[in-house]
Amino acid sequence: MAPGVLVDETIDRDGLQLEETSDSIDNVNVLNGQLKKQQDWDSTSKFDAEKDKTQFRQYEDACDRVRNFYKEQHTKQTVAYNLKVRNNLKFQKREEMTIWEAMEKLNTLIDESDPDTSLSQIQHLLQSAEAIRKDGKPRWMQLTGLIHDLGKLLFFYGSEGQWDVVGDTFPVGCAFDERIIYPGSFSDNPDIKDPIYNTKYGIYSPGCGLDNIMLSWGHDEYLYNIVKDQSTLPAEALAMIRYHSFYPWHREGAYREFMNEHDEKMLEAVRAFNPYDLYSKSDGLPEIEQLKPYYLELIDEYFPQKVIRW
Ligand SMILES: O[C@H]1[C@H](O)[C@@H](O)[C@H](O)[C@@H](O)[C@H]1O
Ligand SMILES: [Fe+2]
Ligand SMILES: [Fe+2]
Question: Which reaction(s) does the protein catalyse, per the Swiss-Prot or TrEMBL entry (predicted)?
Answer without folding.
Answer: myo-inositol + O2 = D-glucuronate + H2O + H(+)
